[in-house]
Amino acid sequence: FAIAALMPTTLLAQTYPERPVRMIVPFAPGGTTDFLARIIQPKMQELLGQPVVIENRAGAAGNVGMELASRAAPDGYTLFMGDVGTIAINATIFKDQRVDPIKDFSAISIIADTPSLLVTGPKFPPNSIAELIAYLKERPGQVSFASQGSGSLNRLVMELFAEKAGVKVNHVPYKGGSGPAAADIMGGHIPFMFATIASTITHVRAGRMKTLGVTTKVRHPALPDLPTLAESGFPDLVVSSWQGLFVPAGTPRPVVDRLHDVVAKVMADADVKARIAEGGSLAMSSASPAEAARF
User: What is the CA radius of gyration of the chain?
Assistant: First the structure.
């Protein structure tokens, strides 16, 4: 009887996946979450032996994609690329949220840690945090900042910065994550924002953006000449985003374990780690799905 009871589980572990797997990214292309998804996708495909199709479903600070993923069949064929906003912040911001990220998903692994930059358009006058504060104090309530959504981590970081600096700024939330906001920063349509390194470092290196500070405890190796916000008088502004892979709750344990093993191998791959580091993030993986869930 015991052997017979184990057969379906064993068979499932051996046969999964038998068809393409979709990965829902709840933001538009160009942001950190999408950037990471596209880095891990090829190696995941290789190890799973099936295509992994990225599906961008942006809207409502990631809630649109999260809700879609939570309603998918719990069979391992829909993955959700969650982040600190969708999994941790949104439930405290949106009173009408229809997804409980803890109950409605099973965690596979945390995959990356990503600090933020305070970026501006190339023609925005301030060239340091001190100059920015002086500029904003001369124009109270007249300068706007962009964010990746009302409940996004980087919006909250900006509100904390404004509070600590004693300045008044106007919030302009963008739909779809960092990509659309970054386009307007570079175009001079809105002056500044906090955004993850991964979503902006290419533009900074190309001179399409300036950066005034980074939210790491010590200077970031990708931008060693850039002062931290802590150095600039804001010790509380040591923060970072994170991303992780999830599946709908109820997904069979053998499938969860298979996906975890694949993700662990992907995140340990030297090329994957190097590409993620080049983009300003730190590749990581959880020791087990249970550890990811506790996180």
Answer: 20
CA pair distance 48, 259, nearest whole angstrom: 8
Could you tell me which of 193, 169, 171 has the C-alpha nearest to residue 182? 193
Please give the Cα distance from 194 to 205 (Å, whole number): 16
Helix/strand/coil for 239: coil
Alpha-carbon dihedral angle through residues 113, 166, 143, 85, given to the nearest 10 degrees = 30
Q: Each residue of 77-108: pLDDT tens digit? A: 999 999 999 999 998 888 888 999 999 999 99
pTM of the prediction?
0.80
Phi-psi region of 280 (alpha: psi -120 to 50; beta: other; left: phi over 0): left
Contact (Cβ atoms closer than 8 angstroms) between residue 277 and residue 36: no
Q: What is the pLDDT of residues 119-144, one digit of tens each?
A: 999 999 999 999 999 999 999 999 99
**Reduced to 3 states, what is the DSSP secondary structure of residue 274?**
helix
CA gap 207, 161 in Å, rounded: 25
